[in-house]
User: Fold DUF6325 family protein from Arthrobacter sulfonylureivorans.
Amino acid sequence: MATTEVHGPIDFLLIEFPVAKTGSGATVAALMDLINRKVVWVYDLMIIRKDADGSTAGVEMTEDVSEGLEGFASLASVRSGLLGDDEIAEAASAMEPGTVAALIVYENLWAIPFITAAREAGGDVIASARIPADDVMAALDALESDSTV
Assistant:
């Protein structure tokens, strides 16, 4: 077997917040906890603002902390180069006007021992998918309400 360094799956999240909403502290604290416990490694974190007229811009974490995402300033220097203009434009197109979003690209470090063991046993990941958390919660809520009827 090749001696290529094993990596965990890499995911992205685009988390949208109303511009008027403040206090990203709890969100950042939860992310920092995952980083400190070596559950994830953040490759990129970008803040994107979409104005009411639909225009978009990146937010420099050193310039406008009134966006309500000032907690992310501790990760302002996290840039790997994996995100380019095309990815940022695609993320912005998913956003509602009058919002600000954190675009986070991260590696799932928790999966590395599992993937390593599978590779050492001759296994290859041949498919992978992510089910959005909102979809899982909606499905579980529907199952719960069906079982109480």
Observations:
- The longest strand covers residues 40-50.
- The helical segments are 25-36, 85-94, 112-120, 133-147.
